[in-house]
């Protein structure tokens, strides 16, 4: 939502006519950059459309393969239930892929109007006064529905309606300063479900507080959110030019998200010549001051024209607004790229599930075919191998406990470092407050200064700690994950060798990483010093002595303030660490048991069947061989869908 900077921003420079030395990309304009002709833009859009069509065709083939696997596994026994579940989970992952695009923009740049145009109707409130710091997550839904989420995760008010005015009025109650001053309603974020075509294929638009939020620490929360997004869309306009606040924010954005794309809005107010000048100036500032690459695309748009085009269903005006190219190229191309990467990853995982199912089938067939005495001897050999592997798994668990303790000590060290840094920072805030107000400084003045400084400081420090800590966790657990992969592979390899079955080596799991979908975290940092009753004796003292006593009291309270905030952060990190290791240990145990069941379980089930229904063994072998052939065919087809 749009909101102004807390302090006045200074313009970098006044735009002047410059010659462009860059071979960049500018869409929605006839400027003198590399994409200067309709032919160039058509080729770019054609490439995007072709890539999207190819991804859609690939998606269809993968869906068919997954459905075929489920049908084939349904023809065998309940011992394949785990493989059923793994395929079902991959089907869900394929259908629920998300491309998270954060939309950033300063107050009065037209961000709400742009989002409304992309959605096709004015459902997000747009105001001439600043909105609050409440982010809105806009994702696909069959009906228009708004859900308010309060701090702590509690779900609040909801509204389903097809009336844009009604939806905008409902949102206004929670995301505007007039209806929710200083966020007294304790709203964390808003979820908006909408059937707009642009949200198909998993696109999620995130309307962030962004630049110049009413609360400065929300800028840090926005930056922390960006590390989990796939891309960011940075909105500016020709009047006024980019400010120092925006450029400073942009530099931080570039370090948080891999892909940032730019929109120069409100170009409908400019003549063709002024538009070229504005675009040249915009690119010059982005490259020289904002850290952008020379070839970064810039989309020249008129959000208000785009919204009117959607309202009147005017295709020509939609194209003229520049938003047709944003929709087709930027969102379509990027979402398609992520989808293709996901499709490849899922194909590889599905192929591994098929390989596990084939191993189970072949072990069952071999166990039904070979003489019982031979089978018994091979089972004993395999069980001895499993005991060795079990000992290695237990040793891995012991190593994990040591890893957890070492990382917990890292948390303690970081907490102590933060404690010292926070103490220095807040004391500096207090000293500066006393220096600025001199003899007029009182308890309320100091507390107001800390209310401004505490959230901003701790939100930034939290982001820095989490990024460094996540890297350390990944470096610690990745080798453990590889070790478990090797243990599972050793079980399969042993089963294949002992029972004379061709072994198909599985790929290693992806490198461990602490990942999660983008979400907004609204922390309640303590900035209250605590009430100190007025002392009658103090009022009788001279002003210098009274100020000295106030300073000592404040300094003592600052220490308590630091301890409260740091301890809350320390406790949360330790809880998250313990939870992470519990889940990781549980995953290890589950993977080991699944592999054990897929091998020894299949062999024992075949032994039981031979003992109970020897007369049906021959028919069962034939039936399982047909299932094996069908699964092998699906596996071979999957290989053709994986890029080489």
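^ Assign residues to that structure.
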């Amino acid at each position: 939502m749009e909101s102004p900077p807390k302090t006045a921003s200074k313009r970098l420079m006044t735009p002047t006519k410059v010659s462009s030395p860059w071979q960049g990309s500018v869409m929605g304009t006839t400027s003198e950059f590399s994409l200067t002709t309709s032919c160039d833009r058509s080729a770019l859009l054609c490439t995007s459309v072709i890539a999207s069509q190819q991804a859609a065709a690939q998606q269809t083939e993968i869906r068919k393969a997954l459905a075929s696997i489920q049908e084939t596994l349904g023809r065998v026994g309940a011992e394949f239930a785990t493989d059923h579940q793994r395929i079902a989970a991959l089907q869900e992952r394929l259908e629920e892929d998300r491309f998270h695009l954060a939309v950033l923009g300063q107050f009065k740049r037209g961000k709400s109007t742009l989002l409304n145009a992309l959605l096709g109707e004015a459902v997000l409130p747009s105001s001439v006064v600043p909105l609050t710091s409440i982010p809105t997550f806009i994702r696909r839904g069959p009906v228009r529905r708004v859900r308010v989420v309060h701090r702590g995760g509690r779900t609040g008010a909801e509204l389903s309606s097809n009336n844009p005015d009604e939806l905008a009025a409902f949102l206004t109650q929670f995301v505007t300063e007039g209806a929710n001053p200083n966020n007294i309603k304790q709203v964390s974020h808003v979820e908006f479900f909408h059937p707009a075509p642009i949200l198909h294929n998993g696109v999620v638009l995130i309307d962030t507080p962004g630049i110049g939020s009413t609360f400065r620490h929300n800028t840090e929360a926005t930056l922390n959110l960006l590390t989990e997004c796939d891309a960011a869309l940075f909105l500016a306009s020709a009047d006024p030019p980019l400010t120092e606040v925006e450029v400073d924010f942009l530099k931080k954005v570039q370090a948080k998200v891999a892909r940032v794309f730019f929109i120069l809005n409100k170009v409908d107010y400019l003549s063709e010549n002024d538009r070229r000048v504005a675009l040249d100036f915009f690119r010059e500032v982005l490259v020289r001051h904002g850290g952008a690459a020379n070839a970064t695309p810039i989309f020249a748009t008129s959000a208000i024209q785009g919204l009117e085009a959607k309202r009147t269903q005017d295709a020509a005006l939609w194209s003229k607004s520049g938003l047709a190219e944003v929709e087709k190229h930027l969102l379509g191309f990027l979402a398609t790229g992520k989808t293709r990467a996901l499709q490849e990853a899922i194909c590889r995982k599905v192929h591994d599930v098929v390989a596990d199912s084939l191993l189970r089938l072949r072990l069952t067939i071999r166990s039904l075919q070979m003489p019982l005495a031979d089978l018994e001897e091979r089972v004993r050999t395999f069980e001895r191998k499993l005991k060795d592997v079990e000992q290695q798994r237990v040793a891995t668990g012991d190593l994990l406990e040591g890893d957890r303790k070492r990382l917990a000590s890292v948390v303690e060290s970081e907490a102590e470092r933060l404690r010292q840094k926070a103490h220095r920072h807040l004391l500096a805030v207090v000293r500066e407050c006393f220096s600025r107000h001199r003899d007029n400084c009182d308890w309320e003045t100091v507390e107001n200064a800390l209310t401004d400084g505490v959230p901003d400081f701790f939100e930034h420090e939290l982001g820095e700690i989490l990024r460094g800590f996540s890297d350390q966790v990944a470096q610690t657990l990745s080798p453990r994950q590889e070790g478990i992969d090797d243990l599972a592979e050793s079980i399969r390899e042993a089963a294949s060798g002992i029972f004379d079955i061709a072994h198909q080596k599985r790929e290693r799991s992806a490198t461990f990483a602490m990942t999660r979908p983008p979400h907004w975290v609204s922390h309640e940092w303590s900035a209250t010093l605590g009430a100190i009753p007025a002392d009658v004796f103090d009022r009788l003292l001279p002003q210098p002595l009274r100020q000295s006593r106030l300073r000592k009291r404040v300094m003592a309270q600052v220490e308590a303030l630091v301890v409260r905030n740091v301890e809350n952060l320390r406790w949360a990190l330790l809880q998250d660490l313990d939870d992470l290791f519990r889940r990781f240990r549980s995953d290890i145990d589950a993977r080991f048991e699944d592999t054990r069941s897929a091998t020894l379980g299949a062999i024992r089930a075949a032994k039981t069947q031979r003992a109970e229904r020897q007369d049906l063994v021959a028919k069962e072998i034939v039936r399982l061989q047909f299932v094996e052939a069908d699964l092998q065919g699906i596996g071979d087809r999957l290989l053709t869908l994986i890029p080489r």
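The mean pLDDT is 78.
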